[in-house]
Amino acid sequence: MTGGTPAARFTADDYRARMARAVRSAADAGLAGLLVAPGPDLVWLTGYAPSADTERLTLLVLAPGRRPVLVVPALEAPDAEKAAGAPALTLRDWTDGQDPYAATAALLDGSGRLGVSDNTWALHLLGLQRALPGTSYAALTEALPLLRAVKDPAELELMAAAGAAADAAFEEIRTVRFAGRRESDVAADLDALLRRFGHSRVDFTIVASGPNGANPHHEAGDRVIRVGDMIVLDFGGLKDGYGSDTSRTVHVGAPTEEERRVHDLVREAQEAGFRAVRPGAACQDVDRAARAVIDGGGYGPYFIHRTGHGIGVTTHEPPYMIEGEEQPLLPGMCFSVEPGVYLPGRFGVRIEDIVTVTEDGGRRLNDTTREMVVVE
Ligand code: ZN
Ligand code: ZN
Ligand code: ZN
To answer: Which ligand sits closest to the CA of 218?
Structure first.
């Protein structure tokens, strides 16, 4: 994999289609339009990622029946023009001293509810509210949680390549020395491996040894790894703009009978969660399937985490595989299946693959062994 799969190139037509779909979804949700600041939604909709998100307003304005407009500071317009989606939109640049909120207001009807990207600065939203006193706002992730959830074939190819790169990192990390080194040393190895296999950004490199494994969100610290430790490894980031996220639990030296039993249980739970993936099943069905196995093994109270989360141009996003989430699975959705058992003061086990929904089931985008790996 070191040679790397060439990144699928999205064309202006791809971005045009995404923006059109977003406008349709917004209208269906009763929104008068969408306002999208720099961040993952803007990248997904236009291919544009400004080098910095600043106090100068950059905002994509989408409204039914209107051509998409990107409001952009004049000094950044040349960069914005180079974005792959630029031919599908109109650039409206503004210079210091002008009021970008008034310019944005002129692009909208001035009434109704607008979807605004989650990470829009409060400064900008307050400016818009002043310029558009008749409007109200909804966070984009709450209003349109599934905007980016269904991936097209080119996106799935990039998701698969990111998964394969994370798998390649696992195949290397299982050969390094663990005993006698700090968690943070192994985490640094993982970071370097993910980059070596093509990641441009590393979001997390969890190395949770011994009792630290009982905290699902432990990152990596000064603890020196010892023979006899279980170690949860959970790592991922972005490769060619798409996310990876995988967990395997390894053991330093021979595991005890109980450690093996808990690991087997989590492996069976992960398999059951995976087998529950098919179009039309509800997100909560994936959680229930995995949880039933862990409950049956008597470790239910120690599965303290939802079973999974969506992934795409970010490493955590809707939909969530959690009790109460009735959203049906759709072909092209990508999410993690990551049950775990967390025994306070002792150890934890988590096994995580990214899975995509196919026409008749699920396909794993991670495929390193799910058997317990013994490391040195
Ligand atoms: Zn978590
Ligand atoms: Zn993870
Ligand atoms: Zn995850």
So the answer is: 1
